[in-house]
């Protein structure tokens, strides 16, 4: 997955638009985007959406309400019979929370945890390996964390993340890769700023993230393009693979005056596998 689009599960109009779009995954949201008096309606529409899904469409995940809300049991009772493709666990406090969720289910379902939404959760980013499976990805978020920290904002006047949130981003990336799951970059809130989103996607891809959350359908094409290897990147990766194939047993090869070693070869292999996956 490259793009994961949040959609309020109580909005039939938004659900229809999202399901017809290019997102790799649509996240039927029962949590933050749904008002308390709309939770029951959101569960009903989410279940209907899951039941009526069409082959060839996006994967359908459900963002649940956290255990502490008292709403989790009702969420699971409503959506699990419709067999979602995956679940998103907000306010995760470590791998134990993922395992606790798995124990409540009567079926194996992939889980993505949002892993940085409280100050306490920041100290648990190294605890997710025992939760694989069902854990397949870690995402991070700034807004709930900023609220927990009592901060005025998560970005400075130039739109750059401030230090606590850059730390959250980095720890999410490290925690995901240490656990062997996919790191997923957070949302870009200004959905009208296409250039800003593209820059943030480029930085996330550069640093090792494999996907990004979206809050608006207009963001999806930009995210998909950014997280799909470019023709130039594919050509460079293939050149590295070809050079090692031609130099049997070599640990280092030279291409155009640059030296490439085994980590470069492994990175090239991963990039080509990723490119092949999205071509399919």
Question: Largest sheet, described in full?
Answer: 8 strands, parallel, barrel
Report the CATH C-level class of the largest domain. Alpha Beta
CATH architecture of the largest domain: Alpha-Beta Barrel
Q: What's the N-to-C terminus distance?
A: 12 Å
**Beta-strand share of residues:** 15-25%
pLDDT under 50 segments (min length 5)?
A: none
CATH domain topology of the largest domain: TIM Barrel
Our count of domains comes out at: 2
User: Secondary-structure element order, as H and E?
Assistant: EHEHEHEHEEHHEHEHHEEH
Name the shape in a single word: globular
Number of strands: 10
SS class = alpha/beta
Q: What's the pLDDT, averaged over the residues?
A: 94
Outline of the structure:
The protein is of the alpha/beta class and 280 residues long.
């Amino acid at each position: 997955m490259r793009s994961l689009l949040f959609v309020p599960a109580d909005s039939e109009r938004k659900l229809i638009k999202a399901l017809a779009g290019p997102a790799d995954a649509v996240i039927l949201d029962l949590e933050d985007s749904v008002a308390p008096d709309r939770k029951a309606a959101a569960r009903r529409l989410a279940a209907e959406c899951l039941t009526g899904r069409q082959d060839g469409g996006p994967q359908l995940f459900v963002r649940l309400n956290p255990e502490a809300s008292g709403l989790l049991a009702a969420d699971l009772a409503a959506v699990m019979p419709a067999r979602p493709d995956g679940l998103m666990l907000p306010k995760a406090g470590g791998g134990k929370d993922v395992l606790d969720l798995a124990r409540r289910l009567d079926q194996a379902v992939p889980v993505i945890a949002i892993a940085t939404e409280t100050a306490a959760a920041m100290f648990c980013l190294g605890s997710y390996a025992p939760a694989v499976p069902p854990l397949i990805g870690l995402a991070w978020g700034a807004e709930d964390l900023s609220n927990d920290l009592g901060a005025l904002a998560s970005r400075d006047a130039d739109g750059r993340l401030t230090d606590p949130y850059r730390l959250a981003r980095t720890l999410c990336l490290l925690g995901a890769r240490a656990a062997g799951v996919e790191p997923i970059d957070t949302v870009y809130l200004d959905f009208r700023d296409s250039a800003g989103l593209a820059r943030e996607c480029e930085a996330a891809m550069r640093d090792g993230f494999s996907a990004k959350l979206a809050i608006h359908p207009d963001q999806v094409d930009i995210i998909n393009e950014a997280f799909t290897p470019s023709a130039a990147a594919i050509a460079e990766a293939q050149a590295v693979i070809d050079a090692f194939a031609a130099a049997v047993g070599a640990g280092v090869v030279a291409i155009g005056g640059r030296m490439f070693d085994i980590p470069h070869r492994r990175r090239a292999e991963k990039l080509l596998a990723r490119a092949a996956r999205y071509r399919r």
